């Protein structure tokens, strides 16, 4: 693996500002560009920690303190006010990251389960002795009920106290834009998944989602999100290591200058593919959308797809007139065919543009185009459209070009608009 396997990869960091420095430093040491978008903050529970302090005072030999996050560890240590737990009281931490944080604060940890989730704690925590016993759970307010319910069924007296609250933070328009342009979102808790998704919207999430562990990944999946990377070691270093190992094998999308040497090379691959697919070729002047100045800001966008830094595809957007854009998945390398790269390029371009529309519906050429779609067996839905490419072709060529471009895009429910070819 390269010394900088995350070179140029933009990673959204969702942790609280006062807890993100370690993750940011680790990412940047591997070449990543950290994009801080803190979506949560940790505050006192409604009672100011009174229940936690009282619960700790009441513990006796044979009882347990169960800590389910580094924030819980910090609150327990603060509530002990420099004292150690009562002799004979054991401490369990949900995972190695929580254990390390607790012990760095001077709190000894006696048990860490193999799986850093509530189910793992239930498997490893012992049953109560003959005289019973108390499990003090120091957790976030509104945490899952699985752990206390399971412990009660095993005979424990459970004191489930709110050690802290996780409060969502608002995101700015700049945060939404930064998130949309990022490559990876790094989630360090279930709450970061929820609040980022609500804050920026599902369509503005980066294409790659990385989770610190199974519980965090489970929250993402409950929200209908696809988790690409789940760390097996549930710590910040473990999360960074999982990203460093997985990201080089993922296709990443980046806006790039359309007149850069590699961009022009990618466009040449597109021209070569067109020449090969269509009898006699098209000639370089026939595909006006590929002029580099027309697909450069402010009126255009060129997006490159890269695998391990190597170009494997590209897509472009060109403004035709106010409110109308041509969007095209241009070239896709055979190396990444059937990996959904074309759809991802289209989605990324759609999110970077206003919804476009076809020109006036009574335009004769558009009427013929719609008829061409219908002849080809496709239903053209009414409403707003994005034109996926512009050729100087006659409408009778529709069927051929539909087969070439992949009309399945027009039926993809994950796209917010219908994507259709536009001819002039």
Largest sheet: 5 strands, parallel
Extended strand count: 16
Tell me, what's the shape? elongated
Which class do the helix and strand fractions yield?
Answer: alpha/beta
Overall radius of gyration: 27 Å
Description of the molecule:
This protein has 424 residues and is an alpha/beta fold. It is built from 14 helices and 16 strands. The protein has helices at residues 21-29, 50-57, 70-80, 96-104, 118-124, 146-153, 173-181, 190-200, 214-222, 236-246, 261-277, 341-351, 364-375, 398-405; strands spanning 10-13, 33-36, 40-43, 64-67, 90-93, 134-140, 157-168, 184-187, 208-211, 229-230, 251-255, 300-307, 310-321, 324-332, 385-391, 418-423. The strands form four sheets. Strands 2-1-8-9-10 form a five-stranded parallel sheet, with helices on both faces. Helix 3 (70-80) runs parallel beside helix 4 (96-104), helix 5 runs parallel beside helix 6 and helix 8 packs parallel to helix 9 (214-222).
In short:
With 424 residues, this protein is of the alpha/beta class. It has helices spanning 21-29, 50-57, 70-80, 96-104, 118-124, 146-153, 173-181, 190-200, 214-222, 236-246, 261-277, 341-351, 364-375, 398-405; strands at residues 10-13, 33-36, 40-43, 64-67, 90-93, 134-140, 157-168, 184-187, 208-211, 229-230, 251-255, 300-307, 310-321, 324-332, 385-391, 418-423.
What is the element layout, followed by pairings?
Elements: E1 10-13, H1 21-29, E2 33-36, E3 40-43, H2 50-57, E4 64-67, H3 70-80, E5 90-93, H4 96-104, H5 118-124, E6 134-140, H6 146-153, E7 157-168, H7 173-181, E8 184-187, H8 190-200, E9 208-211, H9 214-222, E10 229-230, H10 236-246, E11 251-255, H11 261-277, E12 300-307, E13 310-321, E14 324-332, H12 341-351, H13 364-375, E15 385-391, H14 398-405, E16 418-423
Parallel strand pairs: 1-2, 1-8, 4-5, 4-6, 6-7, 8-9, 9-10, 15-16
Antiparallel strand pairs: 3-7, 11-12, 12-13, 13-14
């Amino acid at each position: 693996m390269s010394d900088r396997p995350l070179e140029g990869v933009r990673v959204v960091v969702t942790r609280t500002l006062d807890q993100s420095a370690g993750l940011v430093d680790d990412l940047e040491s591997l070449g990543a560009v950290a994009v801080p978008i803190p979506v949560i903050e940790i505050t006192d529970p409604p009672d100011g920690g009174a229940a936690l302090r009282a619960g700790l005072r009441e513990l006796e030999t044979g009882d347990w303190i169960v800590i389910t996050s580094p924030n819980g560890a910090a609150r327990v240590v603060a509530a002990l006010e420099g004292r150690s737990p009562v002799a004979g009281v054991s401490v369990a931490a949900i995972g190695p990251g929580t254990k390390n944080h607790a012990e760095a604060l001077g709190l000894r940890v006696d048990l860490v389960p193999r799986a850093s989730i509530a189910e793992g704690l239930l498997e490893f925590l012992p049953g109560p002795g003959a005289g019973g016993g108390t499990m003090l759970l120091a957790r976030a307010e509104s945490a899952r009920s699985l752990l206390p319910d399971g412990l009660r069924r095993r005979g424990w007296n459970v004191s489930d106290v709110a050690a802290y609250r996780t409060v969502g933070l608002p995101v700015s328009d700049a945060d939404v834009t930064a998130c949309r342009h990022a490559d990876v979102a790094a989630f360090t808790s279930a709450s970061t998944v929820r609040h980022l998704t609500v804050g920026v919207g599902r369509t503005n999430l980066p294409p790659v989602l990385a989770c610190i562990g199974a519980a965090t990944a489970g929250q993402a999946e409950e929200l209908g999100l696809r988790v690409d990377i789940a760390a097996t070691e549930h710590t910040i270093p473990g999360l960074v290591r999982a990203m460093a190992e997985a990201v080089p094998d993922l296709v990443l999308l980046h806006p790039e200058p359309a007149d850069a040497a590699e961009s022009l090379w990618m466009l040449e691959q597109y021209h070569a593919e067109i020449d090969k697919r269509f009898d006699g070729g098209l000639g370089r002047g026939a595909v006006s959308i590929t002029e580099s100045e027309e697909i450069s800001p402010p009126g255009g966008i060129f997006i490159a797809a890269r695998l391990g830094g190597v170009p494997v595809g590209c897509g472009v957007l060109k403004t035709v007139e106010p409110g109308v854009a041509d969007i095209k998945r241009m070239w896709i390398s055979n190396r990444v065919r059937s990996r959904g790269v074309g759809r991802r390029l289209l989605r990324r371009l759609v999110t970077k543009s206003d919804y476009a529309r076809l020109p006036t519906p009574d335009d004769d050429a558009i009427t013929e185009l719609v008829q061409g779609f219908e002849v080809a067996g496709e239903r053209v839905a009414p409403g707003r459209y994005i034109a996926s490419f512009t050729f100087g072709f006659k409408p009778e060529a529709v069927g051929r070009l539909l087969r070439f471009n992949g009309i399945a895009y027009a039926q993809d429910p994950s796209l917010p608009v219908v994507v259709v070819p536009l001819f002039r």
